[in-house]
Amino acid sequence: MSWFLPAFCLAALMAPAPVAPAPPEYETKARILLMVLPYIQWAGERGWKEGPFVIAVLGDSPFGYHLDEGARSLTVHHRPIKIRYVSQVREAEGCHALFICSSEGRRLDGIFAWIRGREVLTLSDDPALAKRGVMLNLLLEEGYVRLAACPEAAQGAGLTLGSRLLSLARIIRASGAGP
User: Fold this and answer.
1) Can you give the residue range of the structural domain that contains 68?
2) Is 152 within a domain?
3) How far from 92 is each of 85, 86, 98, 111, 123, CA to CA, in Å?
4) First to last CA, the chain
5) DSSP H or E run through 122
6) Longest Cα pair distance anywhere in the chain, in angstroms?
7) Which of 17, 24, 42, 144 is the most buried (most CB within 10 A)?
8) Long-range interactions of 109-113: CB distance < 8 A, separation 24+
9) Residue at 9 is within a domain
């Protein structure tokens, strides 16, 4: 039994170091959301006033600090990114992108009515909202975050989803009206 303690210590020293845990789901989703924005063209982009690129998050944000942290040092089309958290869609006035949290699913028709006629990219991570016409969706499938895109909805809002972005996304058709 006197050999047990030294053998245990030796085994503990030789064991591989623990691997850092995988990033949380919403850290990954925040990174993807921020990374895809440069691959989208807004028809009226040349006429934008000076100022930041505004991403509004509507509803109960699942991102914690991950979206703010990720946006801190990035730009979209040479503009710094500003994250704005809103509880009503009208508070998102002036935003370029609107992340619609799953808490807002019951108000989606009103959100789409407000967006209609505006060049606003819609994003979500709720599979039910993806089927109703949200333009870009960050969906958790088999443990991985997958991108799903609805180019029809984007075109209807005057946005073009770039070919590089579309090559990485699953293309979906909206069963709802969309914006």
Assistant:
1) 21-171
2) yes
3) 8, 7, 8, 10, 13
4) 73
5) strand 121-124
6) 80
7) 42
8) 109/177, 111/58, 112/176, 112/177, 112/178, 112/179
9) no
